[in-house]
Write a structure and sequence with these properties.
324 residues
Amino acid sequence: MDHDLKLSVGARYSIVSCLYFVPYILLQLPSNLLLRRFGVSNWLAFCVVSWGGVQLAMGFVPSWEYLALCRMLLGALEAGFFPGLVFIITTWYIRHEVQQRLAAFYIFSVVIGGFSAIFAYLLTLLSGQRGIAGWRWIFIVEGALTIALGLTAWFFIPDFPDQNRFLTQEQTELVLSRVEKDRGDSVPDSFTVAKVVRHLSDWKIWVFGLMYFCTTVPAYAISFFVTNILLGMGWSMSAALLLSAPPYIFAAISIMIFAWLSDRYQQRALTIAIQACATIVGCVLTGFCTAPTWKYIVTLGQEVAFPEFWLIHPTTSCLTPSAG
């Protein structure tokens, strides 16, 4: 890909990687506001199928400029998926039940993300088939799979509790009463600009945003550049792709353990603090260790330590004055 699109010229690779986040950041909140208007299953399935189409198209880009454009479209279409799923999950459970559910959801992205490098390596073996380069096959196959899974998911994605179609009236009332008793926001209130302004003026929201920013920087630094980091340690391309997966296995185990502890003892802040400290130590050791093997072991530890997951869910499910 680097050879065909000249990504190593200047900062092209970093530009292509960065442009994704511009629409991704700007459109997350508007996307969540559309969930009720279009329906959860309709909106999330549309997002998945659409970005699958863009990903497939990335396999045919003739230059890095077109790749950058596709990355921006990918960011725009993916913007609503992660916050939308987190939002819908939190509406079904009380606060200290939700962490383990979110952990199960998050593990899929962590593990699949970790093994995507191995899958990508296998797809590169198709290089030359039908005159298509190996890196293009990665986008084509993964894009097609994403479209198929998005279409399938439309039949299974649940809606908000008060709009669900698979529970009886009695079961629905039970779910809503538990949420109402826990945090008093089981029924959505009307949306107004004044409410948005009032909540955005809450300094705690911005502090949580800053915390999430600080934890996401090392997370993306590893996930986006782990192959390049391993190449820099002296491993071959194939070895770097294969070695990028094991850290995520450790991460998956860590996520479930800490999620259970967080729900069981209702200690969010302590969980975040412990993992933040471990991440700081891991980043420092990765930067200053000289032996490649030890650097790799430290990378395993950093994947276990990333605390960003504990900051992704709200304590309430909708904008209400009584929200705790």
